[in-house]
Amino acid sequence: MNNDQIDKLMNNPEQELEFWREEDQQREMVRMRYVPQGESGYFQVTYLDEEEGIIGSQVLDEVEDALRFLEKNQSVK
Q1: Cβ neighbours of residue 9 closer than 8 Å, sequence gap 6 or more
Q2: CA 51 to centroid of chain Cα atoms
Q3: What is the DSSP string of 6-54?
Q4: d(CA 42, CA 25)
């Protein structure tokens, strides 16, 4: 399933993947999108609080990193 989500992001850069996760006993909204750049690109991950204020961000350069990130963080529904 995570492979399908990554493929959808890479094939449609305007699309974002959103899900909630628990971090330090606080719920965070996670938004992930693919940013094409030349022949490759990167994944931009933004963390938001419950009022949708940005509390952090992260860049993942490799598809494998994005897959590991989803496996680790998407388990909380």
Answers
A1: 15, 16, 17, 32, 33, 34, 43
A2: 18
A3: HHHHHH-TT-EEEEEEEETTEEEEEEEEEEEETTEEEEEEEEE-TT--E
A4: 29
39 in Cβ contact with 32 (< 8 Å): no
The CA dihedral of 56, 65, 60, 40, to the nearest 10 degrees, is: -160
Residue with tokens 């949708």: 52
> Phi and psi of 43, rounded to 5°?
-105, 125
> What is the residue whose two structure tokens read 């992001």?
9
Query: What is the pTM assigned to this prediction?
Result: 0.86
Question: For the segment 20-47, what is each residue's pLDDT rounded down to a tens digit?
Answer: 998 777 889 999 999 999 888 999 999 9
Residue 55, token pair as written in the block:
């509390």
